[in-house]
């Protein structure tokens, strides 16, 4: 019965929300989803061999990549999420359009749905914004802070339907602080 | 004088065994050079690395005995890596870049 239910709803998945850290923040904009997927696959193959790669690749996908903030959402089967999480710190190089970017991946959240990851991302971004604003000394820095944060929210909006409230939240938040 | 009662002690291991032991035999085609003990160990590690990557290659595997004449060996592996080692040995198909048939006949002892 359990198996039948699982097959009807599709295989259970896990979503890993991570942050792509690049040496130069400007270089981050050249990164593509495909390049990230290939780099992660490479790392899994190196760490867990053919068996691990086959386990991870069954429904592996890069669901979302924000080139501005570096937030990325990876999907894999629930059985294989441990393999994937263990291999993520081993990603060191991204190759995109013939250019190489030394990078590192930082896992932020592990969720069962895209929705929960999105909620976490919003919360995380708000928290980051708060620390950024607290460190600001003058008005100019504050404005640049908010601009830098609004771009990513714009990108989120295009892919995830419920994100329109995010910008409103952020604006409200910025007005109050 | 009555003999002393036989010393008998029963030990029950409640947790899982710490190590698993495998008896394996390497089968090469006729005329192929027989590997030495060190080469045999390297073969095992190569097999593990191929199937299970760096994680597999880092498993604590020991070659307890190796007989070069019959190419049979006894391997000891930590219990958590037993399935990995067995599967890697089964899927190993190359030796010195040449295809060969390897049937590792496994007899297992649990400690």
TrEMBL record, chain A:
GO terms for cellular component: ribonuclease P complex. SUPFAM superfamilies: Rnp2-like. Gene3D superfamilies: Ribonuclease P, Pop5 subunit (3.30.70.3250). Transmembrane segments: none annotated. Keywords: tRNA processing. GO terms for biological process: tRNA 5'-leader removal. Belongs to the eukaryotic/archaeal RNase P protein component 2 family. This is POP5 homolog, ribonuclease P/MRP subunit. The lineage of its organism: Eukaryota, Metazoa, Chordata, Craniata, Vertebrata.
TrEMBL record, chain B:
It comes from the Eukaryota. GO terms for cellular component: multimeric ribonuclease P complex; nucleolus. GO terms for biological process: tRNA 5'-leader removal. Pfam families: RNase_P_Rpp14. InterPro entries: Pop5/Rpp14/Rnp2-like (IPR002759), Rnp2-like_sf (IPR038085). Keywords: tRNA processing. GO terms for molecular function: ribonuclease P RNA binding. PANTHER family: RIBONUCLEASE P PROTEIN SUBUNIT P14. Belongs to the eukaryotic/archaeal RNase P protein component 2 family. This is Ribonuclease P/MRP subunit p14. It comes from Nothoprocta perdicaria. The lineage of its organism: Eukaryota, Metazoa, Chordata, Craniata, Vertebrata.
């Amino acid at each position: 019965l359990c198996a039948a239910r699982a097959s009807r709803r599709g295989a259970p998945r896990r979503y890993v929300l991570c942050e792509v850290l690049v040496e130069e923040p400007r270089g981050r904009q050249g990164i593509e989803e495909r390049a990230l997927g290939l780099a992660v696959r490479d790392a899994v193959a190196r760490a867990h061999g053919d068996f691990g790669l086959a386990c991870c690749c069954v429904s592996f996908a890069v669901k979302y990549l924000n080139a501005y903030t570096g937030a990325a959402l990876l999907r894999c089967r629930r059985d294989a999420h441990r393999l994937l999480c263990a291999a993520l710190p081993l990603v060191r190089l991204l190759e995109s359009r013939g250019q190489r970017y030394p990078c590192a991946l930082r896992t932020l959240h592990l969720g069962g749905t895209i929705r929960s990851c999105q909620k976490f991302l919003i919360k995380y971004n708000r928290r980051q914004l708060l620390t950024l604003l607290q460190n600001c000394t003058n008005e100019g820095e504050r404005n640049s802070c908010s601009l830098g944060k609004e771009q990513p929210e714009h990108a989120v909006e295009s892919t995830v339907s419920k994100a329109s409230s995010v910008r409103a939240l952020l604006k409200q938040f910025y007005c109050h602080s | 004088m009555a003999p002393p009662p036989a010393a008998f002690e029963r030990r029950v291991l409640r947790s899982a065994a710490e190590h698993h032991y495998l008896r394996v035999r390497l089968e090469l085609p006729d005329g192929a050079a027989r590997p030495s003990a060190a080469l045999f160990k390297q073969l095992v590690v190569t097999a593990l690395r191929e199937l299970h990557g760096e994680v597999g290659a880092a498993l604590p595997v020991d070659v307890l005995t190796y007989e070069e004449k019959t190419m049979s060996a006894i391997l000891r592996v930590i219990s958590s890596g037993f399935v990995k080692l067995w599967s890697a040995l089964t899927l190993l198909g190359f030796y010195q870049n040449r295809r060969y048939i390897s049937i590792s006949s496994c007899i297992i002892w649990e400690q």
